[in-house]
Sequence to fold (86 residues):
Amino acid sequence: MKGISIEERAVTLAHYIIDSKDTVRGTAKKFGISKSTVHKDLSQRLEKINLDLFTSVREILDENKAERHIRGGLATKKKYENLKIS
Fold:
């Protein structure tokens, strides 16, 4: 992501999240930047750059936030199932 402006990065991240429905953590890993940077770009900077894009991303981020306890529970279940088998 080097060589592009902060605004371009925020828009690129927004389009990626909209297309892939990925999480902040997954997006950060994909682009090689920190979760904090992704979150700040999408929750603060994008609102000033493109309000329509911000609204679309906000819906996905809110959905991910609502589902994260379920994903965490499934990950824990999988961890302990793997321990039983070994």
